[in-house]
């Protein structure tokens, strides 16, 4: 599924290559209007828990452990509906997961794209 799921910052301009644009942050990005975001979906229910986000605090040295804990959360039934929707979107079109995080390669969007590739 890798070729069909990409990730990047929501603050970058939308492009036709994005396919379906899906915000995967729990909170709305600061300073971003709904019009400028050009979203197809906002699946906040796939975002990491508040406790996990606080623990991680976007520290790249914690990324591997963050990813392990996040994957464990994704296995929980609380995420089932949002993950099913995300898989359905990716089965029919390219999907770009969007995040406000500055270090996008160490974000939940990157981890989620990798998780979807494994699933």
Describe what this molecule looks like in 3D:
This protein is an alpha/beta fold. It has one domain (2-118). It has helices at 34-37, 50-56, 63-74, 80-92, 108-118, and strands at residues 5-9, 20-23, 41-42, 95-99. Strands 1-4-2-3 form a 4-stranded parallel beta sheet, with helices on one face. The longest helix has 13 residues, at 80-92. This is DUF488 domain-containing protein. InterPro entries: YeaO-like. Pfam families: DUF488-N3i (PF22752).
Please give the structural blueprint.
Elements: E1 5-9, E2 20-23, H1 34-37, E3 41-42, H2 50-56, H3 63-74, H4 80-92, E4 95-99, H5 108-118
Parallel strand pairs: 1-4, 2-3, 2-4
Oligomerization state: single chain
Number of domains: 1
* Overall spatial form: globular
End-to-end distance, in Å?
Answer: 9 Å
- Stretches where pLDDT falls below 50 for ≥5 residues? none
Rg over alpha carbons: 13 Å
Mean pLDDT: 92
* Binned strand content: 5-15%
Please give the share of residues in helix: 25-40%
Q: Helical region count?
A: 5
Largest sheet: 4 strands, parallel
Decide which structural class fits the backbone: alpha/beta
Number of β-strand runs: 4
Q: State the strand order across the main sheet.
A: 1-4-2-3
H-E string: EEHEHHHEH
Q: What are the defining features of this structure?
A:
119 residues; 4 strands; DUF488 domain-containing protein; YeaO-like
Question: In brief, what are we looking at here?
Answer:
InterPro entries: YeaO-like (IPR052552). This protein is an alpha/beta fold and 119 residues long.
């Amino acid at each position: 599924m890798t070729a069909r799921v990409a990730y990047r910052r929501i603050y970058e301009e939308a492009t036709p290559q994005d396919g379906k644009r899906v915000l995967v942050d729990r909170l709305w990005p600061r300073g971003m209007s709904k019009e400028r975001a050009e979203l197809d979906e906002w699946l906040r229910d796939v975002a990491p828990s508040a406790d996990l986000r606080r623990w991680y605090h976007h520290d790249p040295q914690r990324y591997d452990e963050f990813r392990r804990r996040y994957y464990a959360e994704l296995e929980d039934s609380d995420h089932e509906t949002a993950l099913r929707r995300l898989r359905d979107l990716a089965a029919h079109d390219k999907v770009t997961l969007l995040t406000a995080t500055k270090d996008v390669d160490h974000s939940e969007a990157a981890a989620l794209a990798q998780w979807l590739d494994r699933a």
